[in-house]
């Protein structure tokens, strides 16, 4: 296992939900966390907070620069910023589908590109992207979200292949229902959903596996179903 103490990790979407839980777990492990959030005042206590909006390419580069200026290096990037706008293939609003594509898929691509050289410099760079089981199977009529998450999983594999020789390892975290604000309208019982803190513990373990024990995909479910 890699020693998490002192490793510098950028976490997008760190103000709430899965992103916040991962940021808090990283802090507890002794990492230096750079939180990318639209409102830096909402970042978890103990993080270095920087303004970041996944729809603004320039904010990715600015956040990377600010992190390097503060810590001098970047060891990992967690792409946890994401949105969900329900809508079927036939009736979903095109603007909503484009927005999910921009945040859930293009946002991670732009951010990891911006941090690439720093990730490669240390020889143990890590990229963890919060995808979804909706990126592994089509379980309901929510086409735009599923498209963006399938693409996020594919992006993860592209990052793995591109960065393998430089020590960069990438993981697609693929949870089912997680008890966050994104699932408040779900009909599945909330008390049976995966707790965000438990998911964060799994994610952080995957991120700190050595180069020769890479976790490409991490599906996590709270119910019995065919996931793959």
UniProtKB/TrEMBL annotation:
Q: Name one Pfam family in it.
A: adh_short
- What positions belong to coiled-coil segments? none
SUPFAM superfamilies xrefs: NAD(P)-binding Rossmann-fold domains
Could you name the domain of life of the organism this protein comes from?
Bacteria
Family of the protein in this entry: Belongs to the short-chain dehydrogenases/reductases (SDR) family.
Q: What is this protein called?
A: SDR family NAD(P)-dependent oxidoreductase
Native organism: Rhodovarius crocodyli
